Amino acid sequence: MLLNSSFLLSNISFPYTLSACHTTQAFPRQTLTFQCCLAATLQDKRVREQKVNILHYEDNMKRRSLLFLLITSGIPSALPAFGKTKNKNPYDERRLLEQNKRIQRENNAPEEFPSFIREGFEVKVVISNNYVKRDSGLIVWDFAVGEGDCPNDGQQVIFHYIGYNESGRRIDSTYLQGKPAKIRMGSKALVPGFEEGIRDMRPGGKRRIIIPPELGPPVGPSTFFSSKQFEVFDVELLDVQDCQRRTIGFYSDVVCN
């Protein structure tokens, strides 16, 4: 039995085109049915691919619209960010302060010792009103002013000191050594912060000096200090001496008295 073209067209639904199954009376029914199914399958595949492409396009447009909305509204998006700063939490600051004070008490730090709140590379120094912070960053507190003239370059200063780290632990003391230190001013034998702190002291004066890292000693494996930290010194200036150079034959030295 042969099928005419009107029968085939009436049994093919949209979106199949008329060209999908064009027939003649010369082909048997099985061949015509195979050709129609093959054409329908190919057309259906193209429709599915078009739908997938449309969905991908709509999804990309939604993502771009959302990203544009986040950027313009100031809401942070889930994108990699560099150089972000963490908002400081007052609770965390109080917690770090209490932790620092507890460690200082365990180390028997002196009265009104400064507290250091360290968060990464940032350090906040908490001090009482007795301290004075200078433009250089040095912080001082005079326990006693003393009398006489302040030391000048070339003069020798004789002083006692106690050195502390940020946790209030004592790291050095001339009192325990049993003899004071002697240094000529201007010889670069002292770290910049210490020399600045002692330069305007007077004999008999007592002062606490808080030295920031930028005015502190160099750090590294070849030095005593392994990291950039604040250093605290309680200094007692005992005397200031004049110095003169003397030469005896081929020998030359400096005498201070």
UniProtKB/TrEMBL annotation:
It catalyses: [protein]-peptidylproline (omega=180) = [protein]-peptidylproline (omega=0). Transmembrane segments: none annotated. Keywords: Isomerase, Rotamase. It comes from the Eukaryota. It is an enzyme of class 5 (isomerase). Residues 154-241 form the PPIase FKBP-type domain. Signal peptide: none annotated. Its EC number is 5.2.1.8. One of its GO terms (molecular function) is peptidyl-prolyl cis-trans isomerase activity. InterPro entries: FKBP20-2-like, PPIase_dom_sf, PPIase_FKBP_dom. This is peptidylprolyl isomerase. It comes from Anisodus acutangulus. The lineage of its organism: Eukaryota, Viridiplantae, Streptophyta, Embryophyta, Tracheophyta.
